[in-house]
Amino acid sequence: MTLEIHKSWQPYLQTEFDKAYFKKLADFVKSEYKNETCFPPENQIFNAFNQCHFNDVKVVIIGQDPYHGVGQANGLCFSVNEGIAHPPSLINIFKEIESDLGIPYPKNGNLSRWANQGVLLLNATLTVRAHLAGSHQKKGWELFTNAVIKLISDNKEGVVFLLWGGFAKQKAKLINTKKHCILESGHPSPLSANRGYWFGNKHFSKVNLLLNQKGNKTIAW
Fold first, then answer.
1. Which residues pair with 162 in a beta bridge?
2. For the Uracil-DNA glycosylase-like domain, which residue ranges apply (predicted)?
3. Is 18 one of the catalytic residues?
4. What are the distances in angstroms from CA 221 to CA 104, 116, 134?
């Protein structure tokens, strides 16, 4: 695994890279990519950090696992490459944006356009074996991404964290709510959304309201 991560993150993450757990994780990931089909492509594992630089982070969205189908994952949580059919959770995200902000449903499911505006699209686990959801969980990625959440909390102010679903809500304990805002709702997956835990959360307009109050540029969702 090559540590192709933007220089803005390196001063904050170098101590993690030097820890024993991360070296063990790196060996595991390297072996998996050598011997199995894994996603996202190896050069996109740290895409969330490369497209959203540390100084630009205004919003953090936390996912769980990369998509495990061919051509889907691009290193940004909930995002798929252009031309790829939108997975159910992404469909529900776009439907909520359409309802909340009146923005037409987009054809392109690549969320790079959000990342480039300061939205860190962070999966808790950054890699996965093809067609095996959760296959790279509990190998060290969660320790790393928890450290990322905490360092953002410690070193920045006024960030809006979107915690969707039970898994993401567990990350609230890593965030200093005196400095940052947390918005919680159900997960956009059909199981949660169809039970009434997702639609109508208005998180996208609420984020922009919070950013505006802090004098920050809003997100063009």
1. 61, 183
2. 50-211
3. no
4. 10, 11, 28
* pLDDT computed for residue 150 by the predictor: 98
* 3 state SS of 9: coil
Query: Which residues partner with 128 through β-bridges?
Result: 39
How many C-beta atoms lie closer than 10 Å to residue 99's C-beta?
Answer: 14
Rounded distance between C-alpha atoms, residue 47 and residue 192, angstroms: 28
Q: Are 154 and 179 in contact (CB under 8 A)?
A: no
Q: For the chain, how are helix, strand and coil distributed in percent, rounded to 5? A: 40, 10, 45
Residue 21 — pLDDT band, cuts 50, 70, 90? very high
pTM, full prediction? 0.96
Q: Hey, what amino acid is at 6?
A: H
Q: Provide the token pair at 214.
A: 């802090």
Q: Which helix (H) or strand (E) holds 97?
A: helix 88-101
Taking only the tens place, the pLDDT of each residue in 53-109 is 999 999 999 999 999 999 999 999 999 999 999 999 999 999 999 999 999 999 999
Residue whose entry in the numeric block shows the structure tokens 């998509």: 67
Distance between start and end Cα atoms, the chain: 32
State the catalytic residue, choosing from 27, 65, 100, 154: 65
Distance CA(141)–CA(128), nearest Å, equals 11
Whole-number Å distance between alpha carbons of 7 and 75? 17
Which residue has 């050598």 as its token pair? Answer: 34
Round to whole Å and give the CA distance between 166 and 129.
23
